[in-house]
Amino acid sequence: xxFRNLAIAxxxxxxxQAGWSLPAAAATRAAASGSEGTATKTVKKSSKRSxxxxxxxxxxxxxxxxxxxxxxxxxRVKVSLRHDAAAHDAxxxxxxxxxxxxxxxxxxxxxxxxxxxxxxxxxxxxxxxSVLPIASITKLMTAMVVLDGGQSLAEEITISEGDIDTLKGxxxxxxxxxRLSREEMLHLALMSSENRAASSLARHYPGGEAAFVAAMxxxxxxxxxxxxxxxxxxxxxxxxxxxxxxxxxxxxxxxxYPLIREFSTTSERYVQIGSRVHRFxxxxxxxxxxxxxxxxxxxxYIREAGRCLVMQAWLMSQPVIFVLMDSEGRYSxxxxxxxxKKWLEAAGPQRLAVATGKENI
Length: 361
Hints:
- This protein is an alpha+beta fold.
- The chain has eleven helices and eleven strands.
- Strand 10 and strand 11 form a beta hairpin.
- Helix 5 (182-191) packs across helix 6 (195-203).
- The protein is globular and about 55 Å long.
- The relative contact order is 0.14.
- Residues 21-57, 77-82 and 355-360 have low confidence and may be disordered.
């Protein structure tokens, strides 16, 4: 067998020197019948040159593609967030102003009231005596009671198990054990509607949450809220109820507190919680709009209340109170506010000074 292989190799060499070649099958047999060790070494060397190197390049390409995919995904998330914000603003600002036969705007809120705060004239209203759940509008009263209590705003208070929402199951970035100043908790409760912050403020009130809720109801009576009742400091329970008339009075009272005006209209805030810094944004996109001058505001939502919004906003140098309750749709409450603003501005200052026949609040 060795002699045959040697003969074939010699013939092959002679033919190559003469410019000829063996048939493919014979060449294959010659290669196949060579030394296994040599063949193995050749394959290994060949693998290093033609397999291993491209494999490394392929791995690099895969890693590179994976990194690019992550980068692209991150960009997509950022773009998506910007797109969502832009879509929200576009949807709100482009809210069509449709008027009924009486020349009043069509709104998607079930109950509402618009009032000139200076004169008490009701400019626009529907079901303004209806008693409805108010969700996180509650936190305006929570803030007034905290500030009336006179406790140190610099004192740190802690989030504990008693602040966890077991009724609606809402989450929070204020984890158990989070310590923030009373002022910071108040800021987050008003700006970002942080339920755990509002709950913690009530628990750290003299006498605890029960005494705090009692103080909320006393305050309600003191400022003339006859349709209003509070059962908790967050608004998560539908037992917190009021009417558009009462809420207009409550917004007017809240607007006399400088800190409530400031905290409720801050567009965003960065807060150090543990080792991380968290961004908290305002739940009302209108505070970021250059078209609005908002003095105080609060949003609210639970299923039983729908989407709610109360504001004091300055229009044509007049403080106007907006109360929008039980709006349907994601953007409906802010879109209704935009519609009302367009309607008022279209008629000029005279509309703000004329009552609609309703008694002054």
